[in-house]
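Listing S7. Sequence submitted for prediction.
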Amino acid sequence: MTVEKLISHYGLLPHPEGGWYKETYRSSNNIIQSALPSNFTEGRVFSTAIYFLLEQGNFSAFHKIKSDECWHFYAGQTLLVYVINAEGKLDIIKLGNDIENGEVFQYVVPANCWFASIPADHAAFCFVGCTVSPGFDFNDFELAKADDLIKEFPELSEEIKKLCRQ
């Protein structure tokens, strides 16, 4: 299994935050806006799912969305998921199949938390999935600007500079 084979086989496309993706599921059922938290400006589908691929030397830049996002490990090696939690503390989750070294197969990034991901130093690539509920919509996607994020979390400036594109 190689990065090139995965991109070709699954028809993956470049993602704005970095990496490669393909939407694999979008619920046909909708949640009306009045049933959602007030930060949603319109209705959303129940749930969406994507494949997501990161190769060594690439990263998913800090961003946030309005929904919870469940990450699922499929293949490759360790993916490090950086999450700035509601208290402003940085958590680094190791997504992978080496459970004896603290890796997990699934992890949920809570809604409205800044997060980024990068393959671990030893990882050639990481092939994962992301399930979002209420369903993902690019209107809910905010890509971080390093300067703004550093003002909010100055103690995390090293990680923010490493994992931002703007």
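Caption to Listing S7: primary sequence and predicted structure tokens for the chain studied. The CA atoms of residues 83 and 123 lie 20 Å apart. The mean pLDDT is 95.
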